Amino acid sequence: MRRFVPTLTLAALALASTVAVAGDYRVGGVEVRSPWTRPAQAGMNGVGYLTLANVGTKPIKLAAVESPAAQSVGLHESKMTGGVMSMRPVTGGLTVAPGGKVDFAPGGYHLMLLGLKTTQSVGGKVPLTLVFADGRRMKIELSVEAGPPKASGASTDPMAGMHDHH
Asked: Is this structure's pTM higher than 0.85?
């Protein structure tokens, strides 16, 4: 019986690591890692998180994000200044240098899914299209999770109550 338990544990760890990277995407020099969102009701606003990495040799610029699941999607940034958290839209896109990455995570950059058309329930998927300045389009899905995926190491969302004001 003792030999079975370690084998089962290793099998469970292998499965967990497979699941953690199952939602990653790569097109050319662009990688999207751990895309996720929180549950939200239709008619409300949602928020999307991911890591955007440039594994290519030229800068990439995320110009816009689209989704059939929302009336619009905006790039936003949250910042803590003088003990006050504020959120503002990112205008002009977001550039990632070769070898660099941008984390869209609670308390920083994030995607605002404005005017959700359907309810986002745990276990569901939300389709997105990332639109780059060079015309490239990358289709991904956000996994609807109750909290950050284990692989992301992200903390809880300090902005959780602020996303409904748009």
From this structure: no
